[in-house]
Design a protein that fits this description.
By secondary structure, this protein is mostly helical. The protein has one domain. It contains 9 helices and no strands. Helix 3 runs antiparallel to helix 5 and helix 4 runs antiparallel to helix 5. The two termini are about 20 Å apart. The model has no long low-confidence stretch (mean pLDDT about 90). Keywords: Ion channel, Ion transport, Membrane, Potassium, Potassium channel, Potassium transport, Transmembrane, Transmembrane helix, Transport. It catalyses: K(+)(in) = K(+)(out). One of its GO terms (cellular component) is membrane. One of its GO terms (molecular function) is potassium channel activity.
């Protein structure tokens, strides 16, 4: 199977996710800056989730750039990834509405963790499909960055039950590490 439909579908889903997130933000009533203070937590959680969707979109684009084909398992793994990313708007809004309290922050971490696991599964299926000498296998081989990110999510989930804002800051730290494109792919890219 060719990969174009998978890429187009994924791009569309991620665009819709971002649209949903921005539509969740309500415009405050009033015309001075003081009316923005109550919506600041919502805006902060929106920014972090927007960055995460952008990171996944960017890295998904890079990943698809180095693969030549997909199969049914890849399509299902990709849907699995998109499912978890599609929960970002809900969990992000819940965090903002509840000012970074325990359960919203913990659930956000769980969703981030599951998205990272779905990414790992997608990468492994693509590596198996393309073989041990493929560009994707060379790029994602051990994937210490991905494994470390997943571990930080798990730790942050547990910390959320004691100091939720620290957990949220850990999620921000992981996003900061991933904000730049994955250079493992760019080094292997031919164009």
């Amino acid at each position: 199977m060719i990969k174009n439909r998978l890429e187009a579908f994924s791009d569309g889903v991620m665009a819709i996710i971002i649209t949903i997130m921005v539509l969740e933000m309500k415009i405050p009533h009033g015309d001075d800056l003081s009316v923005l203070k109550p919506v600041l937590p919502i805006f902060i959680s929106y920014i972090v989730s927007f960055i995460y969707v952008g990171i996944y979109w960017n890295n998904h684009h890079h990943m698809m750039h180095v693969v030549s084909k997909v199969n049914g398992r890849v399509l299902l793994a990709n849907l699995h990834l998109l499912f978890w990313i599609s929960l970002f708007p809900f969990t992000s809004a819940w965090i903002g509405e509840n000012h970074f309290s325990t359960w919203p922050v913990a659930l956000y971490g769980f969703v981030l963790f599951m998205a990272s696991m779905a990414w790992y599964i997608l990468a492994r299926i693509l590596m198996k499909l393309h073989g041990t000498d493929s560009a994707i296998t060379h790029a994602y081989g051990q994937d210490w960055k991905g494994k470390l990110s997943s571990a930080v999510y798990l730790i942050a989930i547990f910390i959320a039950f004691y100091i939720p804002i620290i957990s949220f800051l850990l999620y921000c730290l992981v996003a900061a590490v991933w904000i730049l494109p994955d250079y493992r792919i760019e080094r292997l890219s031919k164009d």
